[in-house]
Structure formats: structure tokens, C-alpha cells
């Protein structure tokens, strides 16, 4: 049969990973093997032998069952509105940045020329 990871095996039987290790693997009730990466894997036949029918446990713990399509469509519409809002804010920020760049380009020649040093009448030099 198929070999699955420890986490997947725990999900299939409907218990936590640590409970699977503590209650079954460490006591030798469920045997594990090692895959080509030396990671522990459990054969699904072992799960069937120890836990019986695992399809019932997976059906109970599936969070995606009973998803309301109208709710998903409303969420998609909300996300699309957010994307449009963020795109408009980005366009405004780019316009501001261009305006600031033009102002900097206008002020650079004055800054490079320095202050005007016209001689004042009270200066002795």
C-alpha cells in the first residue's frame, strides 16, 4: 500500500502527531520504515490494521467540506476590491514621487551654484 509521512498518518487516523508517536509508534503498535531520505514513513496498511477504517476519521476532520460557494464568491469580490484600492494608491504614490523628482531637479542647479554672494556695504573686505 501507500507510504505516508508521520504527520499525514496522524491526520488520516484523526489524532495528533505526538499522540501517534507516544501511543503507537514508541510502543511498537505501528511500525515505521525509512524512505530514501531516511525520513520515517508509515504504510497505510499498518494504519488500517491498527485503527480500522481510516476513511471515517478523514471525513470527520476535513475542514473543506460544506464550504459555501456564495461566501467564497463574496471573499473573492472583497479581495478584488482591495487589489483595485491598492493599485490606485500605488498610482497616486508614483505621481507624488514624480512630482518630488521634478522639484529636486528644479532645485539642484540653485544648490550647486551656492548662495548669492553680493558684496554688502558694511563689509570691510
Secondary-structure blueprint:
Elements: E1 3-5, H1 6-13, H2 17-25, E2 33-34, E3 40-43, H3 44-51, H4 55-60, H5 69-113
Antiparallel strand pairs: 1-3, 2-3
Helix pairs in contact: 1-2
Describe what you observe in this structure.
- Residues 69-96 form a coiled coil.
- It comes from Acidithiobacillus ferrivorans.
- Keywords: Coiled coil.
- It is a single chain.
- Helix content is 61%, strand content 7%.
- The chain contains 5 helices and 3 strands; from the N terminus they run βααββααα.
- Strands 1-3-2 form a 3-stranded antiparallel sheet.
- The radius of gyration is 34 Å and the shape is elongated.
- The termini are far apart.
Determine and state the CATH class of the largest domain.
Answer: Mainly Alpha
CATH topology of the largest domain: Multidrug-efflux Transporter Regulator, Chain: A, Domain 2
The number of helical elements comes to 5
Integer-rounded radius of gyration: 34 Å
Could you give the count of β-strands? 3
Shape-level CATH architecture of the largest domain:
Orthogonal Bundle
Largest sheet: 3 strands, antiparallel
Give the number of domains: 2
Order of helices and strands: EHHEEHHH
**How widely separated are the two ends?**
100 Å
Q: Strand share of the residues?
A: 5-15%
Structural class: mainly alpha
In summary, what is this structure?
The protein has 2 domains: 58 residues, Multidrug-efflux Transporter Regulator, Chain: A, Domain 2; 47 residues. 61% of the residues lie in helices and 7% in strands. α1 packs across α2.
